[in-house]
């Protein structure tokens, strides 16, 4: 009997009990010993051929598979017990005697960087902080979020601040939770090996607990979700305090923070569904919480499909800071995660619908941003995710045509990351310019490195040594080399010899753009 889940975990085989050759051999031997012996055989077994008539018979012990002299048996058992007690005594002494253990090997640079990078989320927490948060300059903040808005009147305490300010944007926050969950699903053992599994799961739950507050997560059908807490637009002057005009620590904010809701926001709803669905896989061992996440994800995805529209209308705060250009990519991305979380083919049918792929931009190969994975464009990530499905589960008709398309497009995206194809420029220091020289390039760089590394692992797990770029075959090591080169750039292998991860390396930014730090100084 085979058990299979849609995530493509290991197949479990449960065979009916059956005797092995060794079992049958032992049964035959036992049968030979148990059959009736004739007088001569009994005499030989019990007294031996050299015994004289009238001699006192020896006592024997029948073990089933052999017959032993009782004295020999008792002596043997006593010797074994004595040796066992002696060995146990020696081991007890060894355990009690103090001794030094060799120190564990120092962590590699990627492990150290991951420790530091995860602390970013600790620094971004909003609401009542746990005692073990580990960031000395952060405290409880914005404890009246939602309650101070007269139109909402419900607690929206918690979640994560966006960056250096104190606004809570659900759109990029949800995407961050999806990505954290994806990394845990694929690399749980590695997180556990470096002692970060509990930490990263705690961070994910901090985010998903907040997202569950932003809509009616106990209902099967919803008509609104919270898009944002706080305001950042300063173009209208400072008549009303907001999170950009008033530069202060979140712990000191005492002004009301408005809440923005949306009633037709397919992109936001589908991304939030993806976040909750992915997290439900992370927490699958906690059935109650996992089921709660799945139920919320179903309501969100349903809402997004029924109430079509972008969450960021022109002129809104969302459009200024995190504008969404389309919701079709979120339909594919969210549908894929919903399928993996539930196993319901309805979601896979949505994610692999030919029209959906077309609207999401799967065929826009000439677009300058094709293959750039961001919080706004989820298609490259969705294609890698669905390539995983094809490589490991191969669901076949009627999904195969689009899955093959996504798989081929993923190959094309990986080709575009290689310098020899000139799809993107590279700086003199070796950084790929996925956003074509515009500001804040590193977010795109690390996203590409993640996809390249993950896809190479998928290929290896599927016993596929590489992929083709036209007629040229490249091994998976080429992808890993690209991923390492970009990550190394971020960690200090760049013209400035500077690490861009705060706290990592000998030279890193000391005055981060973060209002919660004292005088902007990161300790």
Write up what this structure looks like.
The protein is mainly alpha-helical and 523 residues long. It has a domain at 125-340: Glycosyltransferase. It contains 16 helices and 9 strands. It has helices at residues 21-34, 39-46, 70-96, 109-123, 170-193, 197-213, 266-282, 287-306, 317-321, 328-342, 345-351, 354-360, 379-392, 400-416, 442-461, 476-490, and strands spanning 2-3, 12-13, 60-62, 67-69, 168-169, 225-229, 259-262, 466-469, 472-475. The strands form 4 sheets. Strands 5-6-7 form a 3-stranded antiparallel β-sheet. It has a two-stranded antiparallel sheet with strand order 1-2. A hairpin with a 2-residue loop joins strand 8 (466-469) and strand 9 (472-475). Helix 13 crosses helix 14. The chain is globular and about 100 Å long. The relative contact order is 0.08.
Task: Give the arrangement of secondary structure elements.
Blueprint: E1 2-3, E2 12-13, H1 21-34, H2 39-46, E3 60-62, E4 67-69, H3 70-96, H4 109-123, E5 168-169, H5 170-193, H6 197-213, E6 225-229, E7 259-262, H7 266-282, H8 287-306, H9 317-321, H10 328-342, H11 345-351, H12 354-360, H13 379-392, H14 400-416, H15 442-461, E8 466-469, E9 472-475, H16 476-490
Antiparallel strand pairs: 1-2, 3-4, 5-6, 6-7, 8-9
């Amino acid at each position: 009997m085979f058990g299979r889940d849609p995530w493509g975990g290991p197949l479990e085989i449960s065979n009916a009990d059956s005797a092995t050759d060794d079992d049958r051999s032992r049964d035959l031997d036992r049968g030979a010993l148990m059959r009736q012996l004739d007088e001569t055989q009994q005499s030989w077994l019990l007294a031996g051929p050299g015994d004289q008539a009238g001699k006192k018979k020896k006592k024997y012990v029948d073990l089933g598979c052999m017959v032993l002299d009782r004295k020999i048996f008792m002596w043997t058992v006593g010797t074994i017990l004595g040796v066992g007690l002696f060995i146990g005594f020696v081991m007890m002494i060894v355990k009690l005697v103090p001794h030094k253990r060799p120190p564990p090997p120092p962590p590699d640079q990627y492990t150290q960087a991951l420790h530091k990078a995860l602390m970013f989320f600790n620094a971004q927490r909003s609401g009542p902080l746990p005692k073990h948060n580990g960031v000395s300059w952060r405290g409880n903040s914005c404890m009246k979020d939602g309650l101070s808005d007269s139109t909402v009147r419900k607690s929206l305490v918690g979640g994560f601040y966006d960056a250096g300010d104190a606004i809570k944007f659900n759109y990029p926050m949800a995407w961050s939770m999806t990505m954290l969950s994806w990394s845990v699903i694929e690399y749980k053992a590695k997180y556990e090996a470096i002692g970060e599994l509990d930490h990263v799961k705690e961070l994910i739950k901090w985010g998903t607990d907040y997202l569950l507050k932003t809509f009616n997560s106990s209902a099967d059908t919803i008509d609104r979700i919270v898009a944002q807490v706080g305001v950042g637009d300063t173009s209208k002057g400072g008549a009303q305090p907001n999170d950009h005009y008033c530069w202060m620590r979140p712990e000191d904010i005492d002004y009301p923070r408005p809440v923005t809701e949306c009633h037709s926001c397919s992109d936001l709803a589908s991304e939030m569904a993806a976040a909750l669905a992915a997290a439900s896989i992370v927490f699958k061992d906690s059935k109650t919480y996992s089921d709660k996440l799945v139920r919320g994800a179903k309501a969100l995805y349903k809402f997004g499909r029924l109430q079509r529209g972008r969450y960021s209308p022109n002129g809104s705060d969302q459009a200024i800071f995190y504008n969404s250009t389309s919701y079709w990519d979120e339909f594919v991305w969210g549908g894929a995660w919903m399928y993996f979380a539930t196993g319901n083919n309805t979601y896979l049918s949505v994610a692999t619908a030919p029209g959906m792929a077309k609207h999401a931009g799967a065929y826009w190969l000439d677009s300058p941003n094709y293959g750039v994975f961001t919080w706004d464009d989820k298609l490259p990530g969705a294609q890698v995710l669905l390539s995983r499905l094809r490589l490991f589960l191969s669901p076949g008709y009627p999904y195969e045509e689009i899955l093959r398309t996504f798989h081929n497009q993923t190959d094309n995206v990986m080709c575009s990351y290689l310098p020899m194809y000139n799809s993107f420029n590279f700086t003199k220091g070796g950084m790929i310019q996925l956003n074509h020289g515009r500001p804040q390039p590193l977010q795109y760089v690390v996203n590409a490195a993640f996809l390249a590394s993950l896809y190479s692992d998928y290929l290896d797990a599927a016993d596929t040594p590489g992929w083709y770029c036209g007629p040229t075959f490249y091994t998976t090591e080429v992808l890993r080399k690209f991923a390492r080169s970009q990550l190394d750039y971020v960690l200090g292998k760049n013209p400035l010899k500077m690490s861009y991860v705060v706290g990592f390396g000998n030279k890193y930014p000391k005055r981060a753009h973060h209002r919660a730090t004292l005088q902007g100084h990161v300790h």
